[in-house]
TrEMBL record:
Residues 24-107 form the GST N-terminal domain. This is Glutaredoxin. InterPro entries: GLR_AS, Glutathione_S-Trfase_N, Thioredoxin-like_sf. SUPFAM superfamilies: Thioredoxin-like.
Length: 107
């Protein structure tokens, strides 16, 4: 893979991450100063997606991330596979690959 592809996020997506019928079912746990989060947010903007963001500097959002995903690391994409049931996708490159595969055609 070229450096250009790497920067664009051309990795293979995490195969176990569930598909969603709408990207309204996604939420991004992030922090403002995190460069990995910025990379994900640049792709969200590029794809024209509206994805709710939760800043884990807020204790309640950090607590939700820890309780659901098990790690405090950001970025993390929360995927609602069924109402109230979530899959927590870590790693910026996996998140970017997921967004490109599942939400690339939406505006
Ligand atoms: N390989 C990860 C690295 C993410 C990462 O290192 N995030 C930092 C913030 S920039 C983090 O959350 N570190 C753990 C912590 O702060 O507790 C990715 O690409 O998403």
């Amino acid at each position: 893979m070229s450096m250009f592809d790497w920067l664009k996020g051309a990795d293979k997506p995490d195969a176990s991450a569930p598909a969603v019928d709408s990207c309204e079912r996604l939420a991004l746990y992030q922090r403002a100063w995190c460069p990995y989060c910025q990379r994900v947010k640049a792709v969200i903007a590029e794809l024209g997606l509206e994805i709710t963001e939760y800043d884990t500097n807020e204790p309640e959002h950090l607590q939700a991330l820890l309780a659901g995903g098990g790690q405090r690391m950001v970025p993390c994409l929360r995927i609602e596979q069924e109402p109230g049931h979530y899959y927590w996708l870590y790693e910026s490159m996996d998140i970017i690959a997921y967004l490109r595969q599942h939400c690339g055609g939406q505006s």
